[in-house]
């Protein structure tokens, strides 16, 4: 296979990685703070905070360095995470107080945690197609 | 925290964001001078951290959560250097979008810092 993929960290992917990085920083910092200061209050939610931060961090590195397989896995986990925790946080307030990036479908973060994984999945899919599709031999760019 | 200093940070961030937005419109990548702009903001952030440390040590605001505050201080300081390096390596307009988002993030974190400090 000599299929050429566009690197996931280039062009619009540059922005995607940057936003992932900011979210990774926000989620990890929040999670570490929560676990360090008040773990006994809501252990499930706070450990989940740290876990989500780690997943965002791994996804950021994977997208930045074009590790597509790892990126698919981590972005997939985020998609499931925000949907499951978002739903649970609405139903079961006791276990999931509004204290993780995924609570309330990420409303504390302007719903970025809800939108981002879908953008990530779309970006991975769109860059994964072989460039031969749009750059066939002999085809000229920007004709007309 | 000193309000004028916080306003200065927000103002500088908005200026840098505007500069980056202009580059997005003009389809240009980040230039070195913009990174110097980011360095100026970082310098003000360091000054602010020192001032905050002095006030926190001598006359802290009531009910200040130190861990939370310093967590935000560190987070805010990390954003621009990483974003600048990441943006500068890309030579398309997306590089300017990255700087734009980073500058707005630092401005927003400044607002959160003021909240945690109890000013707003």
Question: How much strand of chain A?
Answer: under 5%
Please state the average pLDDT score of chain A.
Answer: 86
- The gyration radius over C-alpha positions of chain A equals 18 Å
Overall number of structural domains of chain B: 1
Tally the beta strands of chain B: 0
String of helices and strands of chain A? HHHH
Structural class call of chain B reads mainly alpha
Helical segment tally of chain B? 4
- The total tally of domains of chain A equals 1
Number of helices of chain A: 4
Helix content bin of chain A:
55-70%
Following the backbone from N to C, one meets helices and strands of chain B in this order, namely HHHH
**Which regions of chain B are unreliable across 5 or more consecutive residues at pLDDT < 50?**
none
| Measured distance between first and last alpha carbons of chain B | 11 Å
Structural account:
- The complex is a heterodimer of chains A (144) and B (120).
- With 144 residues, chain A is an all-alpha fold.
- Chain A contains 4 helices and no strands.
- Chain A has helices spanning 12-38, 43-64, 68-91, 112-128.
- In chain A, helix 2 runs antiparallel to helix 3 (68-91).
- The longest helix of chain A is centred in the N-terminal third of the chain and has 27 residues, at 12-38.
- Chain A is elongated.
- Chain B has 120 residues and is mainly α.
- Chain B has one domain.
- In chain B, 82% of the residues lie in helices and 0% in strands.
- Chain B has 4 helices and no strands.
- Chain B has helices at residues 3-25, 32-58, 66-88, 93-117.
- Chain B is elongated.
- The mean pLDDT of chain B is 95.
- The A-B interface holds A 10-15, 17-19, 21-22, 25-26, 29-30, 32-33, 36-37, 64 and B 67-68, 71-72, 74-75, 78-79, 82-83, 86-87, 90, 92, 94-95, 97-98, 101-102, 105.
Describe the structure using short key phrases.
A: 144 residues, mainly alpha, 4 helices, 0% strand, B: 120 residues
List the helices and strands and how they pair.
The complex is a heterodimer of chains A (144) and B (120).
Chain A (H helix, E strand, L loop, with lengths): L11 H27 L4 H22 L3 H24 L20 H17 L16
Helix pairs in contact in A: 1-2, 1-4, 2-3, 3-4
Chain B lengths: L2 H23 L6 H27 L7 H23 L4 H25 L3
Helix pairs in contact in B: 1-2, 1-4, 2-3, 3-4
């Amino acid at each position: 296979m000599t299929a050429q993929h566009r690197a996931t960290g280039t062009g619009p992917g540059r922005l995607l990685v940057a936003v992932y990085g900011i979210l990774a920083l926000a989620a990890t910092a929040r999670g570490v703070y929560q676990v360090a200061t008040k773990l006994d209050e809501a252990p499930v939610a706070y450990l989940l905070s740290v876990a989500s931060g780690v997943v965002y961090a791994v996804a950021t590195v994977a997208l930045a360095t074009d590790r597509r397989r790892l990126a698919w896995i981590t972005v997939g986990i985020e998609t499931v995470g925000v949907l499951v925790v978002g739903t649970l946080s609405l139903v079961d307030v006791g276990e999931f107080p509004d204290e993780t990036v995924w609570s309330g479908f990420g409303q504390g973060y302007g719903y970025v945690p809800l939108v981002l994984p879908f953008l990530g999945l779309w970006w991975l899919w769109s860059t994964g197609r072989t460039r031969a599709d749009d750059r066939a031999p002999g085809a000229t760019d920007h004709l007309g | 925290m000193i309000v004028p200093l916080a306003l200065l940070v927000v103002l500088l961030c908005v200026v840098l964001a505007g500069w980056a937005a202009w580059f997005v419109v003009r389809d240009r990548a980040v230039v070195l001078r913009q990174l110097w702009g980011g360095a100026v903001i970082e310098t003000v952030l360091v000054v602010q951290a020192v001032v905050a440390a002095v006030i926190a040590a001598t006359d802290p605001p009531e009910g200040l959560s130190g861990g939370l505050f310093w967590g935000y201080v560190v987070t805010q300081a990390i954003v621009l250097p990483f974003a600048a390096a990441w943006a500068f390596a890309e030579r398309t307009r997306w590089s300017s979008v990255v700087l734009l988002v980073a500058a707005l993030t630092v401005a927003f974190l400044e607002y959160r810092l003021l909240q945690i400090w109890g000013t707003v």
